[in-house]
Structures are given as structure tokens and as C-alpha cells.
Amino acid sequence: MEELFIIFFLIILLFPIGLGLLIFYLIKKYGKKNYAYIFALIYTSIIIFVSINIIFEDELFSKNDAIKLLNEQEFILEDDFKIIENKSMSAIGDYYHTFTLEITEEDKNRLIKEISESKDYKKLGDKTIIDLYYIGDKYNGIKATQNFENQTEYIREYFKPNGKGYAPTYRKIKVQKESNHIIFEEFHD
């Protein structure tokens, strides 16, 4: 299995390089030497840019990225915050992203109030909490949000189908009871 993974990785890595070389030599062969070098420069720059973004995705994550993802779930931070941790992982067909923020006590209390006063809020011990990811048709079902509380957190869960052939969006934002941390989790499969 490991050998298959290495072969697949090499194919993925070598395909763009081979394609670039093939196009370069075809352009050069047909007498357009200057165009071939311009193509090589632009193509190499694009490959390097994409590679850096993939390799350093976690390091390039910013406060603006966090704000954007939280705002999509109607979580608005009014005060400054600190990124404690950011991790993302991907495999063929799967993607997982999580980050932890340290927020102010005021933001924490306001977010807890928003969750606990939402119309669909389920209190600690409520038996009607369901796993949104496994309800109905994952690809053509309905968008759903759920707000609830467990022993350690206040949670806002979000699920949105993206159509046949596309992974649904599943996100969970957890406001910690004992600390001023919020944890964002997202996965696609």
C-alpha cells in the first residue's frame, strides 16, 4: 500500500513538470525560442507559487482567514484575538481543517449568549441532538444549523450539501466553557 502511495505521489508531482517540459520543447521546436522561454518562466512561477501555497498552507493562515470562516457561520468577533493553533490535512477525497483562537471574555460571553438564545438551542442533556453529517442525502439535502451545549462547550454545527459529486460542507464551532478558546473544525469527504 505504501508503494502505491509513493507511485501515485510521484505521478502527481511529475505530471506538471513533464507537461511543462513537453510544451516548452514543442514551442521551441516550431521556431519560437523566445516564446518557449517566456512560457517556461511563467509556468515555473505558477508551479512554484502553487507548491508554496500547498506546502505552507498552515503557516500562511491569517486572522482574516479565521474571521472569514467564522463570519460564514454568523460568528462575529468584535475584539482582537490570537491564533493558538492551525492545522489542516488532506488526502484523496478528504479534507480536514481546524484552528483554535484565544478570544476575549466579552466575545466569549456574547457568543455563548448567541448560541444559548438561538431558537434551535438544545440544553445540556437534551436527547434531540442529532449528527447533522449523517442526516438525509449528503449531496442534495437541506442546509442545517444546530446550536447546543455539552459538558465542556457551547457548539454551533453547520451542514450544507453542495450538490451531486461535490463534498458537503460540515463545520463545527466550539466555545470552551473553562477557557477563552474557540475551536473551529471543518471537514469534507
Question: How would you describe this structure to a colleague?
Answer:
The chain has 189 residues and is an alpha+beta fold. It folds into 2 domains: 54 residues; 126 residues, no CATH class. 39% of the residues lie in helices and 26% in strands. It is built from 4 helices and 6 strands. Strands 1-2-6-5-4-3 form a 6-stranded antiparallel β-sheet, with helices on one face. Strand 4 and strand 5 form a beta hairpin. Helix 1 runs antiparallel to helix 2. The radius of gyration is 23 Å and the shape is elongated. The chain starts with a helix and ends with a strand.
Assign a percent range to the helix content: 25-40%
Number of helices: 4
Structural class: alpha+beta
Mean pLDDT: 83
Largest sheet: 6 strands, antiparallel
Number of strands: 6
Low-confidence stretches: none
Distance between the termini: 21 Å
**Which geometry do the CA atoms define?**
elongated
Strand arrangement across the biggest beta sheet: 1-2-6-5-4-3
**Gyration radius, in Å:** 23 Å
Indicate the proportion of strand residues.
25-35%
- Pattern of helices and strands: HHHEEHEEEE
Number of domains: 2
Descriptors:
single chain; 189 residues; alpha+beta; six-stranded antiparallel sheet; 4 helices; 26% strand; elongated
Task: Give the helix/strand layout.
Blueprint: H1 2-29, H2 33-55, H3 63-72, E1 82-91, E2 94-102, H4 105-116, E3 144-149, E4 153-160, E5 169-176, E6 181-188
Antiparallel strand pairs: 1-2, 2-6, 3-4, 4-5, 5-6
